[in-house]
Amino acid sequence: MKQNDSNIRSVKEFNSRKFIFFLVIFQLVESLFFFGCANPLEKIDEPISRSFVDEKIRPFRARFDRQLPVVAVIGDNEYTELSDFVVPYGVLARSKVAEVYALGTKSGRMRMFPTLEIEIQKTLSDFDRSFPEGADFVIVPAVHNSENPDLIRWIQLQTSKGATVVGICDGAWLLANAGILKGKRATGHWYSLNNLEKKFTETEWIRNRHYVADGNIITTTGVTASIPISIALVESIAGKKRARQIAKEFGVIDWGTAHNTSNFEFESRHYWTAIKNFLSFWSYENIGIKTAPGIDETTLALVADSYARTFKTNVFAISDSGQKIQTRGRLTFFTKKIKGEEKTFDRILENVDIFPAVIALDKTLSRISSFYGTATSSFVAIQIEYLLR
Which residues does the UniProt record annotate as the domain DJ-1/PfpI (predicted)? Predict the structure, then answer.
């Protein structure tokens, strides 16, 4: 194992990983003490059976004489979930059915969790000056601080102006804290549903759906639900034919809402895997994902997200120059220089976007299984709420 250089991991990244580790330790101890009993923080309480109803997103109706709808993908500069943000941005930007903007609370860098950094295009205030009538769609990913007052106020403002607000994964916490889920049907990441249900009792929390649409409020399950909801939004804006074309480009076969929440729960093997991987710090690998201008941002996000959740790796976007690169959908990522620094990395992944995004995700999880074992691959898939194929 090669030594990390002094810049290889920031203090905040280490603290985030440490926080997750102690959370896992707590869950493991609790499961050992209550072996054989339901764990309210982990086990999903299935509601009384009800017939499946496919969620319908309203067809988009143009407003303000705009030629294309305006989509704001928002996040906190201090830790926003990578795929939650980048996948909807990439799908909608590349579909060319909307004007899509990457917004942050401040200008400059946005740190993504669990890895990578992007450069935002506008601040929330910049956007308000450019579009005083508001956005047509607001995409809200999971953020580290779901009580961020700037984001909450802005979500409330955009809702009052008639935007369709889409909470991706634990973005549901921001929407709930903003008060816009009261009296609504909603969903969220499988791990959060019981806690959401306890705290926000005026919301009907729905399981077994990739996404739930209640009027102009849409929420999704875990990280990878960002894929079907993005295609569904393309269909809402431009119709099924365009949605099929985009789905094929990204390797998506079905973007319906069918989903089985009960498939996802942490088992003892996942706890032990997390502990073992985390404590084996001497064998952490530095993974460099080779990037170049025009790379597929959705594939980059899904691959980086998956490797970074193994508790075995530090993951970086790299390029020959170490300069910022602009993706196919015109999103800017910061990169680390690879030329002359190859020995810093244990693995360098090249051409990650030669396959459509979903196929690349499947191949990534398969490689993680080969590199680090099936338990680690399963642990990653459960975190991103994705059924291994």
Answer: 78-235
